[in-house]
Design brief:
homodimer, 186 residues, alpha+beta, 8-stranded mixed sheet, 4 helices, 8 strands, 24% helix, 30% strand, globular
């Protein structure tokens, strides 16, 4: 572990953030935010925000969910970690993306959310992506969520390695085989 | 998303890092590092390091694996994200923890690794934790890995929500049921 550049008062590391998929109707619907501000003003994004020093990632997620949607949510799983330096035009951010469920409240657009919109991932996502309405790298995240949702619903084989990252590629069948977890003998 | 404190030249966010489990023998063995330096000098830890600005998390993981163990590794999955402010006594870090497999090379201790040691998770982990030989919050990470490994081996039911975070609790059966993903109708 090299420590150069840590804590020297200059940003030498990506800024950690959370994004989160608020799901309902057996994960088929996801809540998106119509953005009030730049970047990507007017486009749709997954709700999210930065993690403060001293704050646990899942608490940042709960705080931002409350601030932007007024919903109380709880994490179900981590979908993936997205850290492409170009994912946010403002700075290098690294997003921990949670899948969550609503525990309490009714959705109401607040903070930098101009409006909220439930989308049916199976039916509406492709059209929204094609018409370039999705901000940041959230098209990738939402497509990864679609894969997760299908695995969770049992329509593809559920594996225990169903998390995603910026450069994760679709595996060929052969590669998939070599990565497959095999039971230990004996 | 509030932006106060971002990019103002002062650390107002946790510092993102990667840790990684290098596995062999059908995931039953994990490579640990005997620490050459403080904190936790002389204790065992999972290899890891900070993510540099401009660097994708999985590239930071590959770089650190090469630097500390001289192995070429590839990610299989993200085990979890660990962000307890007290996990590292030096500063607030947030760790993206990957599960990896070896693609090339032979392990050799380098950089701040005094030595490397394969441990059998099932047989040796409890003893190492009890004798307080594991650094940072890596006891938690290794226990979470043990759950992941058992799910992967099919000895407990494999679910698609098998990722972990700092405050994730063991669910009661009833809570587990309510979180369970159910197939959509029709």
């Amino acid at each position: 572990m090299t420590e150069e550049g840590q804590g020297n008062g200059k940003h030498r590391n990506p800024v950690p953030a959370v994004d989160f998929l608020i799901s309902k109707d057996d994960n088929s619907k996801i809540l998106l935010v119509r953005r009030k501000n730049d970047p990507f003003k007017g486009m749709l994004s997954i709700p999210g925000g930065f993690i403060n020093e001293g704050e646990i990632a899942e608490d940042a997620m709960r705080r931002e969910a409350k601030e932007e949607t007024s919903l109380v949510v709880e994490p179900i799983a981590i979908l993936g970690v997205y850290s492409d330096p170009k994912r946010d035009p403002r700075m290098h951010t690294i997003s921990v993306t949670f899948i969550t469920r609503i525990v309490q409240g009714n959705e109401e657009a607040r903070d930098d959310a101009a409006a909220l919109q439930w989308i049916n991932v199976e039916d509406e996502l492709d059209r929204l992506i094609q018409s370039k309405q999705i901000a940041f790298d959230h098209s990738k995240i939402l497509n990864d969520y679609k894969k997760w949702m299908k695995a969770a619903q049992g329509s593809v084989e559920s594996t225990s390695n169903l998390t995603f990252w910026s450069t994760k590629k679709e595996q060929t069948e052969e590669e998939e085989e070599s990565l497959q977890i095999k039971p230990t003998e004996g």
